[in-house]
Design goal:
Helices cover 35% and strands 26% of the residues. By secondary structure, it is an alpha+beta fold. The chain folds into three domains: 233 residues, BirA Bifunctional Protein, domain 2 (2-Layer Sandwich); 76 residues, Herpes Virus-1; 93 residues, Anticodon-binding domain (Rossmann fold, 3-Layer(aba) Sandwich). Strands 3-9-10-16-13-12-11 form a seven-stranded mixed sheet, sandwiched between helices. It has a five-stranded mixed sheet with strand order 20-19-21-22-23, sandwiched between helices. It binds glycyl-adenosine-5'-phosphate.
Length: 474
């Protein structure tokens, strides 16, 4: 992957219609983004690739649960009590920060300045911090200043719940409070029995879901990386207790492989085990991607024991166990969870695809081209149909082919500007195939197919083009 700044990615994303700021004409809404014509295709292709790899197999079923759920769900899951971040305000700048992030940034600064031991000690202190006062004391002891104003005049630290609250029905009181789900996983846990009873699955089996999640993040940052509305693709794999070590290993490898199959490379991906495990977790590892701003989590694989199902049993009063009809054994299944952000990994694939190259232009001179080297499965537009010139029957030939291809996949027609410029335009949005109709096409029915990355051209009969492309994008 090439070095690229986040500004370049954000600007390309807007210019070419991948991502726009939400409500931009009103000045934008912090932490929310809209997907434009190309972005929506890329996101859809990414979700499709995940959906196919996770649910087109014998042992995993898909669901699509409601975003609004019974409020007791979030009590059982622990989100009402614990889904909080420590927050601090600076009295001078009025800026609000996550206290743990301020300390992490301070630790990174210490590391950068070669103060490794002090950084290590502080990291240990941060990792042990539980109460708001613990975070506050670190900020005071370390004399951490507000990055915006340089002031050290801080309010106390308070815990802030990240769930968005709203009301169901016409009365806005404590009894009608509901939350926008902060993760899709709970929709899967509460449907465990329904799926088990309505499908032919037996343990081990999984349930997968793609959907929106909402978190009222204190600080949104890095474009699509930390937003308040985003999409998750989660799968809970229900297993027999005791199988969790083996299954955790299996899923961690499967998920890493998935990124490689879609064109990512091992220099930009790594595993990062969690230093601090949640109280219910037996193991947890993140898959991190090397973003322009540094390494960041794109997916978490968590061994969650029987915590979630047991808590839902307790709070709902309904049995959530599996009965083995052969051995008559009863147990509450353990769960291995794979949880990836669709929007966050969208950004990772976009950054990874971004390439600037020097290639010879039509005259053989050195020219620069920007290419989005998406895997053909992910590319928003699969092919462009380009008549070499706007005469001699080429546009008519091209249009006929274009209309036919359009029935099977997303394709663009472009007859404006010199052919080289049209190739560059398609390169910049990551179109893997450009089909050119020239004089020969009219005499023998063949066209050229140019492959985006190698820029190699082959000649094919026009009626073979669809099959050729389909083989490469499915
Ligand atoms: N059910 C487990 C769970 O939700 P998580 O680590 O909080 O785990 C999983 O989230 C994934 O969701 C992350 O790896 C990330 O890709 C995505 N994600 C989480 N918070 C996000 C946010 N504020 N903005 C964008 N993506 C986010």
């Amino acid at each position: 992957m090439q070095q690229v700044t986040l500004e370049t990615i954000v600007s390309l994303a807007k210019r070419r219609g991948f991502v726009f700021q939400s409500s931009e004409i009103y000045g934008g809404l912090n932490g929310c983004w809209d997907y434009g014509p190309l972005g929506v295709e890329l996101l859809r292709n990414l979700k499709d690739a995940w959906w196919k790899s996770m649910t087109y197999r014998d042992d995993i079923e898909g669901i699509d649960a409601a975003i609004l759920m019974h409020p007791r769900v979030w009590e059982a899951s622990g989100h009402v009590a614990n889904f909080t971040d420590p927050m601090i305000d600076n009295k001078v700048s009025k800026a609000r920060y996550r206290a743990d992030n301020l300390i992490e940034e301070h630790i990174a600064k210490l590391e950068k300045n070669g103060k490794h031991e002090r950084a290590r000690n502080l990291a240990a202190r941060l990792s042990a911090a539980r109460e708001p006062e613990d975070f506050y004391q670190i900020i005071i002891d370390e004399e951490i200043a507000d990055p915006a104003s340089g002031s050290r005049d801080w309010t106390p630290v308070r815990y802030f719940n990240l769930m968005f609250k709203t009301f169901i029905g016409s009365v806005e009181d404590a009894n009608s409070v509901v939350y926008l789900r902060p993760e899709t996983a709970q929709g899967i846990f509460v449907n465990f029995r329904n799926v088990l009873d309505s499908s032919r699955q037996k343990i081990p089996f999984g349930i997968a879901q793609i959907g929106k999640a909402f978190r009222n993040e204190i600080n949104t940052k890095y474009f699509l990386f930390r937003t308040r509305e985003f999409e998750q693709m989660e799968m809970q794999y229900f297993i027999k207790p005791g199988m969790h070590v083996e299954q955790f290993e299996y899923w961690r490898e499967q998920r890493f492989q998935w990124f490689l199959e879609l064109g990512m490379t091992t220099d930009v991906l790594r595993f990062k085990p969690h230093d601090k495990l949640a109280h219910y977790a037996a193991a947890a590892v993140d898959i991190e991607f090397k973003f322009p701003f540094g390494w960041g989590e794109i997916e978490g694989i968590h061994s969650r024991t029987d915590f979630d199902l047991s808590r839902h049993e307790e709070y709902s009063g309904k049995k959530l166990e599996f009965v083995d009809t052969g051995t008559k054994e009863r147990f509450v299944p353990y769960v291995i969870e794979t949880s990836i952000g669709a929007s966050r990994s969208f950004m990772a694939f976009l950054c990874h695809a971004y390439t600037v190259e020097h290639v010879p232009d039509a005259e053989g001179d050195d020219a620069e081209r920007t290419v989005l080297k998406f895997h053909p499965k992910l590319a928003p537009i699969k092919a462009a149909v380009l008549p070499l010139v706007k005469k001699d029957g080429m546009p008519e030939f091209a249009e006929k082919l274009y209309r036919d291809l359009q029935k099977s996949f997303n394709v663009q027609y472009d007859e404006s500007a010199a052919i080289g410029r049209r190739y560059r335009r398609q390169d910049e949005i990551g179109t893997p195939f450009c089909i050119t109709i020239d004089g020969e096409s009219l005499s023998d029915g063949t066209v050229t197919v140019r492959e985006r990355d190698s820029m190699q051209q082959i000649r094919l009969a026009a009626d073979k083009v669809k099959e050729y492309i389909l083989q490469r994008i499915l």
